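Quick question, first post here. What does this chain look like in 3D?
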Amino acid sequence: MGCTGSSRAKGDESSKKIRRPKPWKHSQALTRTQLKQMRDEFWDTAPHYGGQKEIWDALRAATEADLTLAQAIVDSAGVIVQSADLTTCYDERGAKYELPKYVLSEPTNLIRDN
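> Answer (accepted):
Ran it through. Tokens below.
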């Protein structure tokens, strides 16, 4: 790591501060139970999309934490954040991790369970 391009500088992408996703609307109204089921299905299958299971686990923990803790989780796992809302990230080996909006926040058209 003798060159300046290989060290973590203050402008490095991996140190990008994460933020809450922008409000979004699902194509149809969802109940909290349906949203939880969609999230569970995504996280159960996420490691099959490629990348490392440990990074997927860290991303899940980050999405379920407050912003300060999420930032610490992402930083300690070595996740390189391309999109500040965590929709697109990379690990240190260059594997891409894409997270759907529904695992990051609730839709604006979330309805009450019966």
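The longest helix spans residues 32-45.
Helices lie at 32-45, 53-63, 67-77, 101-104.
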